[in-house]
Amino acid sequence: MKKLLSLALAVLMLASLAISVSAATTGADLPSVLSYLYGSKVYYDTTPYGYDGLITRWIDTCPEEKCSGVATFIIDGGKIKWACPTCGKSGTITAPQPEKPDKDKTPTPASLVCPTCKKADDLQYIRTAVVDGEWKDIYLCTKCLEIVYTKASGTYPYPYDYGKDYGIDYGKDYGYYGYYDYYFENTIKCHHNEGGKFCQKDAKIQLPLTVKDDKVVATYKCPDGHVTEHSIDKDEYVRPYMVSVIAAAGGDSAVKGGTGAKYGETKTVVFYPKTGYALTSVLVNGTSVNFKNNEVSFTVYGPVIVRPTFTKIADMKTYTVTATASGSGTITALKNYTSLPSAAKVEAKYGDTVSLNFLPAGKNYRVADVKVDGRSVGAATTYSFTNMNADHKVEVTFAWKAPYDDVIERYIPAVEFVTEAGVMSAYSGSSFSGTVGITADDLVCALAELSDTAQVLSDANARRAWITANGIAKGVDLTKKCDVQTACTVVVEYLKVLEAKNGVTFLKLDKTASVKDATVALNLATAKTFDANRLLNRYDLAAICRLIARLEYR
Predict the structure, then answer these.
(1) Cα–Cα distance for residue pair 336/350, rounded to 1 Å
(2) Peptide bond into 208 cis (omega under 30)
(3) For 117-139, how does the pLDDT look when each residue is reduced to its tens digit (9 = 90+)?
């Protein structure tokens, strides 16, 4: 007769001696402890990880006769070791050896040996179950307390992929492989009756089961959509499950009412953060759940694994990354690899990752320098802070990459402006040729293009026509070289037209003043330069356009 042994994997750690957890067994005598090893207590589906394993750690009543506390037990080297935080004592219990299996009734495969003692003499058959996706016979070496697996022979009614019929991965979603129930079948004949005739098609069970009033209800659905329900009294549906809490640094936990639970029962886990720690997250069967007052409650429909996380309160401080940019470019930010709407000020918690990307405005721009907390890290295009534990300041400088090979440094801002605005371009090849003289026609065409925000002036003729139509260059010979006084006269008239067309007022423009006085007020030229009336070049034209674009108005 094959003997059934309760197999489960408890996740209570020996280090968690102070946890106040209800014992999974009852009674203060030694047999209640040994029952975990040799099967006098039988549980079904108590393997939360989807495979069978021998219980090697658990909490139970302290073996010390005068102690009323609970002790932590572990199996080590074929012996049971225990330690009790209540009485402060510890000891070792030698487990009695079960009788050897009847080899005539339960033959052990010739090739199967214990991995520890390398013998088959003490192997005892336990049960057949799904392990790593296939049916296996499970043996226990009663000498070394090792579990040994071998491929099962024969066929079994509940194959590993049964759950695929419902689109469910039981190993992942429920903690065990294949749906197996002692009370409800997987498939029944549909009971739907129409005109005195039963449907009789195969109706499959819909999971999970539900609890209605005092009944556990299984719902079956056939291909035609008919629904049939079978139910059993909840008190009769005695199918215990294990609620396991993963031990975590920074706190302890307890399962109210003990770690065993029936189907449909509500269980509550209480967490006890240590001084200086706080409970920051709880996973129930891998899913994050909300908790309140350091407690979490859930309904049990199968084995449950609860995984808390405790974090040092000092590590929960919020840190800030501030980022500023100068020049033409932008900064984007990600926190824990998720994009943020702004990089100007990013708040992050301890351990977070903040990444910044530096994006020049266009092909003619580059990252010139990046400073992190005042220290240059070069012309980086990205920078990340991993495991945040302090505030940080990032300063990025973007610079213009002149597409010309002959621009004088002091004219770079003006040349950058007219180039990026599309007002002026190379004079010849890759040269801007800033010292080349301009004509009045060059001036009016540049001014017309500067005002063409709608981009309707497609060529030089259209730009000259716009200037003429608005009376900006009356009496000016456009073919002649442009001098300071001609340029100032045209610009003053140009600004008056812009005011009228756009409904604005330039703060420094006095329409009643002379051209010379208006020029000086606008900072177009000094009185001395106006009187000298020298000829202008391409650098001067670029500077005039940039000055106009930067004039204040209301």
Answers:
(1) 12
(2) yes
(3) 888 887 877 666 655 556 677 77
What the block records as the tokens of 38 is 């040799």
Do the Cβ atoms of 457 and 466 come closer than 8 Å? yes
**Of 379, 400, 421, which residue sits at a domain end?**
400
192-196, 443-447, 486-490, 504-508: the lowest-pLDDT one: 192-196
Alpha helices in 22-126 (DSSP H): 30-38
Domain membership of residue 120 (yes or no) is: yes
Residue 299 in domain: yes
| Strands (DSSP E) found in 53-196 | 57-61, 70-76, 79-83, 90-94, 123-131, 134-141, 146-151, 187-189, 193-194
| Amino acid, res. 149 | Y
Distance CA 235, CA 233 (A): 5
464-505 pLDDT, tens digit each: 999 999 999 899 999 999 999 999 999 999 999 999 999 999
Q: Give dist(CA 342, CA 3) in Å, integer.
A: 66
Six token digits for residue 359: 């994006």
pTM of the model: 0.45
The residue to which tokens 């501030």 are assigned:
322
- Pair (302, 370) in one structural domain: no
Asked whether residue 519 is assigned to any structural domain, the reply reads yes
Q: Do 277 and 41 form a contact (C-beta atoms < 8 A)?
A: no
Strand order in the sheet with 251-255: 251-255, 266-273, 295-299
| Residue 226 lies inside a defined structural domain of this protein | no
Q: 73 and 167: one domain?
A: yes
Residues 20 and 98 in one domain: yes
Final residue of a structural domain among 315, 331, 361: 315
What type of residue sits at position 224?
Answer: D
Given a contact cutoff of 8 angstroms between Cβ atoms, the answer to whether 167 and 161 are in contact is no
User: Do 17 and 129 share a structural domain?
Assistant: yes
